[in-house]
Amino acid sequence: QVQLAESGGRLVQEGGSLRLSCAASGNIASIGFMGWYRQAPGKKRDFVAAFTAGGSIDYAHSVKGRFTISRDNDKSTMYLQMDSLKPEDTAVYYCNVNTDYDPKYGNDFWGQGTQVTVSS
After folding, report:
1. What is the pLDDT of residues 86-106, one digit of tens each?
2. Closest Cα partner for 68 from 79, 53, 60?
3. CA nearest 33: which of 87, 83, 106?
4. Tens digit of pLDDT for each residue in 48-66?
């Protein structure tokens, strides 16, 4: 089992920056895939950024060049630095980990989410 706790979400003006954190506890040695997703009101949950197999990093096209994912070496904490924020970035941001490097397999764990609101 892995427990996840996101923090750092708040109201910010357009063009501003935020840094989200995701603290992992429990069996963090089992973690393979680590990533961020977001869900805007009335929309499905979408991929934002993730560490995949071999330490590769993927970003959604909509955030590439503005968001940066990082993590501690022991995978105990993952971060999402968000710059040049836009109103369309408004969403609940979720931390996701999986015991496999491919999130289609393994055991999947989610945090409770943290609200990011970008005002225009």
Report:
1. 999 999 999 999 999 888 899
2. 79
3. 106
4. 999 988 779 999 999 999 9
Q: What is the CA radius of gyration of the chain?
A: 14
Report how far Cα 15 is from the mean position of its chain's Cα atoms: 19
pLDDT in the model for residue 103: 85
Whole-number Å distance between alpha carbons of 24 and 89: 24
Strand positions, DSSP E, 40-113: 46-51, 57-59, 67-71, 77-82, 91-98, 108-110
Q: Which of 20-24, 73-77, 94-98 has the lowest mean pLDDT?
A: 73-77
Separation CA 100–CA 38 (nearest Å): 21
